[in-house]
Amino acid sequence: MAHRFDTHYTRAEARALLPQLRLWLDELLRHRDEVAKLDRRLEGPLASGQDLGGDTVNRSILLLAKMRTLFLEFHRREIQIKDLDRGLLDFPALINGREVFLCWEKDEDDVEFWHDIDTGFAGRERLD
């Protein structure tokens, strides 16, 4: 049977990544918030047709590049960010030969839930 994903995580493998993933999620949120602040600072000059540049624009571009690098780390591992604010992640996995997602939120201590590929968070079930 063909699978949608090349990578499939065991619960132990997903667990082992949690400390790093928490750091990356926190960093993404910090960068996103700072970019939003910089964007608000640029709204006035942009609306009045001023030429933009300087430290504010450079800082924003740097933060966006850092965010892109972090998103690529998730993508490379085939870990899906379902909700950045909640830190909701899905890890492709196989349970009884069926492709599913292990489901984890940043405020959870462990990987304790899974759901079918197409059901999403609402279909979460506790792992045995």
Structure description:
It is elongated, with a radius of gyration of 18 Å. The chain is built from 2 helices and 5 strands. The model has no long low-confidence stretch (mean pLDDT 92). It has a 5-stranded antiparallel β-sheet with strand order 1-2-3-4-5, with no helix packed on it. Helix content is 47%, strand content 20%. Strand 2 and strand 3 (98-104) form a beta hairpin. It is an alpha+beta fold. The chain has one domain. The longest helix has 37 residues, at 11-47. Helix 1 packs antiparallel against helix 2. It has helices at residues 11-47, 54-76; strands at residues 80-83, 88-95, 98-104, 113-116, 125-126.
Keywords summarizing the entry:
128 residues, alpha+beta, 5-stranded antiparallel sheet, 2 helices
What does the secondary structure layout of this molecule look like, with pairings?
Blueprint: H1 11-47, H2 54-76, E1 80-83, E2 88-95, E3 98-104, E4 113-116, E5 125-126
Antiparallel strand pairs: 1-2, 2-3, 3-4, 4-5
Helix pairs in contact: 1-2
- Could you name the ranges where pLDDT drops below 50 across 5 or more consecutive residues? none
The structural domain count equals 1
Q: What would you report as the Rg, rounded to the nearest angstrom?
A: 18 Å
Helix and strand composition category: alpha+beta
